[in-house]
Write a structure and sequence with these properties.
The complex is a heterodimer of chains A (324) and B (339). With 324 residues, chain A is α/β, with parallel strands linked by helices. In chain A, 35% of the residues lie in helices and 17% in strands. By secondary structure, chain B is of the alpha+beta class. In chain B, strand 7, helix 7 and strand 8 form a beta-alpha-beta unit. Classes of the chains: A alpha/beta (324), B alpha+beta (339).
Chain lengths: 324, 339
């Protein structure tokens, strides 16, 4: 099978060229510790979470899963909301390949939505692999959602209007969270936003092979992330759907989904397939495949025309979902 | 691995060092290789510079302006002549601007962005919109007619209309300009942009039938220009409107004529020290000696020493009001007496 990859969008190709020394590509197990202490830690600390004073920001420790440590929630609520009524809540799960990152990573995207929509953002910190393999990360994410639903009023939120959202590994955990809340009859989010989500531990689709060694987060890095989470079970017959949502056999009864992905990234085919299976199960889903997009392009090169379209589509979907 | 832009650092946070210049070059090379369009190239300039960028190629009807966050936002405001800018062709008029206050030192990174973006834009424009047409404003025969006082009024107004000027609007004003060694040109007033690089004299803004007079003013103003170098200090662009009574000097001193005695004194002093002319120009053209010292980057006492030496060589003072006027006139006459 010929492995000619789709070309990157011109603007994204230029951004990739300019950023290439700083981008993760072929992450291996040996690189994880270094990646966690990369130059970004400082930059993350400088991120203005108030978005120029729009949000009041609070870090809160809440109970974790049974017999597990507490977890930290970053809570950002509009300082001067337009309405006294409870606000929609965006429950955010950060990315980082299951192995790096914290609840600041990528939170600027949901903060930007929440500023436009007048919503509360809750971003959950979860334990990272490989020190904490499955199910630690997804159980932390579930525990954070439980607290958020039970205490929504306390943070100015509406428990009936929680949207769960995440990018990359965070998108994968968000998809798994939707399955988990369905099966445990837990809180019912009204929507799931899966941005370039990491769904399939088998790491064997055509796009995985096509993009090996190219762009951001290639096959090697993907294998590293999944192996950190699942150990020797990765790719085998016994992987839980709450670790890798692509493994789920039943995708019915899930909240409406928004999915996006680049055409030039490892995750393209698993995301397209997941959207198709949501429709086949009678579900509601909107899928965007952005031509020439590499993994996380809209975050790395937010000014590019295709990134602006991508971010715009996310907000427009949320607006329709919330009936504004 | 997801949204690690905070981990990776944004393009807009590039360090203003040599590494940044290398990245700028790689950025535009990649855009060009991928056959990116005009907007992507202008956006690249805006994003990398961190300020709005603007392309205006009137001849090929291309106008693109992009904000540093990537938003396309065209503007009717005329470009500010102080903004860093670049032409698409060597010696051409400016076509790409970085909308940045130009009063500070021009940065190396800005220069690289402008050079690379302009080069890539030229290729795209040539590919997609053909070679730059001879826009009517560049048509020498039409310009010549409008500037020719012996042509009939009817012929001049007809030519003006073809140049894009509106003779039917009584408020229409235009000015002629005279580049050194180049063809005459016409600008609709009050637009400030569009002058070629190098030494240019600019005539007064006049109704269209007055353009032959504006052209005469422009040629006179050209004689007052200088290269702006240490050996030929002075202004590269001179407007006839700014000359006032000084313009009369141009009638008294023919180009290539025997220089007046004060100019010969100046040449003698200039032959003595390489800093002489630039120092005297600074003194003649700034409000105070202190400002003059700052302008040429010397200590105040150094300037005083230099001026004492200059006064000895010239044989007349330059620090008295009368002496300063004499110096200004001598520097001006030096330009006028050139061949």
């Amino acid at each position: 099978m010929a492995m000619i990859p789709p070309p990157f969008d011109p603007e994204l190709a230029a951004a990739l060229e300019a950023l290439k020394d700083m981008l993760p590509q072929q992450l291996t197990m040996d690189d994880i510790v270094e990646a966690r202490q990369g130059p970004g830690v400082q930059l993350l600390a400088q991120l203005d979470l108030t978005m120029g004073g729009f949000f009041e920001v609070e870090d809160r420790l809440v109970p974790g899963p049974e017999d597990a440590p507490e977890i930290s929630l970053l809570i950002c609520r509009p300082a001067d909301p337009a309405t006294p009524d409870p606000l929609p809540v965006i429950y955010h799960v950060h990315g980082g390949g299951m192995v790096v990152g914290n609840n600041r990573l990528g939170v600027d995207a949901p903060l930007a939505w929440a500023r436009e929509l007048g919503a509360v953002v809750v971003s959950v910190e979860y334990r990272l692999a490989p020190e904490n393999p499955h199910p630690a990360p997804v159980e932390d994410v579930y525990a954070g959602l439980l607290w958020t639903a039970e205490h929504a009023a306390e943070i100015g939120g509406d428990a009936e209007r929680i949207i769960i959202a995440g990018a990359s590994a965070g998108g994968g955990l968000t998809a798994a969270l939707a399955l988990l809340t369905r099966d445990r009859k837990g809180p019912r989010p009204i929507g799931q936003v899966l941005l370039c989500p990491m769904l399939d531990d088998r790491n064997d689709t055509p796009s995985v092979h096509q993009m090996a060694g190219r762009g951001v987060w290639d096959r090697t890095a993907n294998e590293t992330g999944w192996t950190a989470l699942l150990g020797a079970a990765r790719g085998g017959p016994d992987v839980s759907e709450y670790a890798a949502a692509s493994r789920a056999t039943d995708l019915s009864g899930l909240p409406p989904a928004f999915l996006d992905v680049g055409s030039a990234e490892t995750f393209r085919d698993e995301v397209v397939e997941y959207a198709s299976r949501l429709w086949q199960a009678g579900g509601v889903a909107e899928l965007h495949v952005w031509p020439g997009g590499f993994h996380g392009f809209d975050g790395f090169a937010p000014q590019a025309a295709v990134s602006r379209e991508c971010r715009g589509a996310q907000v427009r979907w949320l607006r329709r979902l919330l009936g504004e | 691995m997801g949204r690690m832009k905070e981990l990776a650092g944004r393009l807009s946070a590039l360090d203003p060092d040599a590494g940044a210049a290398v990245r700028v070059i790689a950025y535009f090379d990649t855009l060009a290789d991928a056959r990116a369009g005009l907007e992507a190239l202008v956006r690249g300039a805006a994003v990398l510079a961190g300020c709005p960028a603007r392309l205006v190629d009137a001849g090929r009807r291309a106008q693109v302006r992009v904000e540093p966050d990537g938003r396309r936002q065209d503007s009717d405001r005329a470009p500010d002549p102080a903004w860093p800018c670049a032409a698409l062709e060597p010696g051409g008029i400016p076509a790409l601007w970085l909308e940045r206050d130009g009063s500070g030192e021009r940065s190396v990174v800005d220069a690289v962005i402008l050079e690379r973006a302009a080069g890539a834009l030229r290729v795209v424009l040539d590919r997609t919109r053909g070679r730059a047409p001879v826009s009517p404003a560049d048509d020498p025969a039409l310009v010549e007619t409008v500037l020719d006082p012996t042509a009939t009024e009817r012929a001049r107004l007809h030519a003006a209309r073809r140049l894009g000027l509106d003779p039917d609007d009584p408020t229409t004003r235009a000015r002629a300009f005279a580049p050194l060694g180049g063809r005459p040109g016409i600008l609709s007033a009050p637009a400030g942009a569009g002058l070629p690089a190098g030494r240019v004299g600019v005539g007064p803004a006049v109704p269209l039938l007055g353009l032959p007079g504006s052209w005469e003013g422009a040629r006179t103003a050209l004689r007052f220009t200088a290269e702006g170098t240490a050996q030929d200090p002075g202004e590269r662009v001179v407007h006839a409107d700014d000359l006032g009574g000084l313009a009369l000097l141009a009638q008294l001193i023919a180009p290539g004529s025997e220089p007046p005695p004060d100019v010969r004194d100046l040449e003698r002093a200039a032959a003595d020290s390489p800093w002489m002319l630039a120092t005297l120009q600074a003194v003649a053209s700034t409000a105070s000696l202190r400002a003059a010292a700052t302008g040429i980057n010397v200590h105040h006492s150094t300037l005083q020493d230099r001026l004492a030496q200059a006064e000895t060589l010239l044989g007349w003072p330059v620090r008295t009001p009368r002496g300063r006027l004499r110096l200004q006139l001598a520097l001006t006459m030096r330009h006028l007496a050139r061949g």
